[in-house]
Amino acid sequence: MKIGLLSVGTEILLGDTVNTNLAKLGSQLYNSGNSLTHEITVSDIEEEIINGFSFLYDNCDVVITCGGLGPTEDDITREVISKHLNIELILDEDHVAFMKKRWQARGLLMPETNVKQAFLPKDSLKLNNTQGTAPGSLIEIDEKKIYIFPGPPREFIPLVTDELIPRLIQETNKDPKNYQFILFYNQAESSLAQGINEFKPEGIDIAYLASKGIIKLRYDKNSISNDDESNFIENIRNKYAEDIIAYENIDISKILLDLFSEKEITLSIIESITGGELSSKITKNPGASSVLKGSSVVYTNDSKNLLLDGEYNLKNWPELTEILSDKGLDYYSSDICLSILGEAGPISSSKYGIGEIFISIANNSQNISTKHKLNGNREEIIQRAVNKALWELIKFVKNLN
């Protein structure tokens, strides 16, 4: 089955909006045993919409459109496609009433321009949009299926998940992917792949996904036998035990929180280069308050001096990180404190090079400091520093008696 996506929106072509719908759709289709064969992005111009749609209609069994269902003048996707297919648009009075109630619930009157969202192609199946006012539509014509969906990701993705994917699974009768994950740190993608090639099972569906120092190995459990999978995992464990973060698709910050919770210990953080990103990543997880007692962003020398309350050499970062972690341990009365300093660039403001970071982790019996060199631009270095700090914390706690 060939599946095509028509993304409608001048804002995408201008770079004002990133087309995250494409990635989400592609992933869900692949996981369901299907795949996207074509994607075309067009502006909010009738001729361009027709040209893009015509190509997909001629070359695909299923066409999905995304965007152009809003209440403004440039939202014309449903009108253009219906006109092109010679299908009449019918006003759904029930949907008009539904929209008016939503506006009234906010204490507002619905503008008359919003009524256009309630016009649906004749004989099409209305697909309820639980996150917005523009419903989706399913047109079946010439043994083809056309799904007309709204563009905002919070509306598009639920329609894909709840309406499109279940229908495709039923129609294609393909086995959905059963993905398993293994997460690694301190490994380069190419060298990891080369090492695993030595013992990977024949026919395994495998991929490597790299992001800010973390490598996700993804494989389809359905592509190999149980015995082959057991041997595969055992070989990986034997060769990469020290670099494995987890055997599931989980954020490294959640692994950290679970580990601290299990050992019933608390954490504090003193961060500079990461500017609050490290603490933020941890607190995005529910229940973080039971672990993280507090954090400080000491971005300037003045803010460092406020915490240190004394005369210290602020230019000696290896020593300074140790002092900061000891001070943070006392200040927040936590079981463990991590401090992190470094240069993110693009211009160094110290004697240290771009990408050089220093991490110190202290508890009441020891203070372990490490130096690391990270690559990338400013944003990449900051995100890599966050993940490096989390990984160093995980290793520190695992080694506690």
The CATH superfamily of the largest domain turns out to be: MoaB/Mog-like domain
Average residue pLDDT: 96
Low-confidence stretches: none
Strand order of the largest sheet: 2-1-3-8-7-6
Described by the principal axes of the CA atoms, the overall outline is globular
Could you tell me the CATH topology label of the largest domain: Molybdenum Cofactor Biosythetic Enzyme, Chain A
How far do the termini sit from each other?
56 Å
Number of domain units: 3
| Portion in helices | 25-40%
| Rg calc | 27 Å
Q: Find the count of extended strands (DSSP E, 2+ residues).
A: 17
The SSE order reads EHHEHEHEHEEEEHEHEEHEHEHEHHEEEH
- Percent range for β-strand residues: 15-25%
Q: Quick one: biggest sheet?
A: 6 strands, mixed
User: Which structural class should the secondary elements be placed in?
Assistant: alpha/beta
- Overall CATH architecture of the largest domain: 3-Layer(aba) Sandwich
Number of helical segments? 13
Q: What is the name of the CATH class of the largest domain? A: Alpha Beta
Pick out its properties.
globular, Molybdenum Cofactor Biosythetic Enzyme, Chain A, alpha/beta, 401 residues, Alpha-Beta Plaits, 13 helices, Maf protein, 3 domains
Account of the 3D structure:
This protein is of the alpha/beta class. It folds into three domains: 3-172, 3-Layer(aba) Sandwich (Molybdenum Cofactor Biosythetic Enzyme, Chain A); 179-246, Alpha-Beta Plaits (2-Layer Sandwich); 252-398, Alpha-Beta Complex (Maf protein), CATH 3.90.950. It has 13 helices and 17 strands. The chain has helices spanning 10-13, 20-31, 46-59, 77-84, 93-105, 153-172, 189-197, 226-240, 252-263, 277-283, 301-308, 317-332, 378-398, and strands spanning 3-8, 36-42, 62-66, 89-91, 119-121, 125-127, 136-141, 144-149, 179-185, 206-211, 214-220, 244-246, 267-271, 292-297, 336-342, 356-362, 367-373. It has a six-stranded mixed beta sheet, with helices on both faces. It has a five-stranded mixed beta sheet with strand order 14-13-15-16-17. The radius of gyration is 27 Å and the shape is globular. The model has no long low-confidence stretch (mean pLDDT 96).
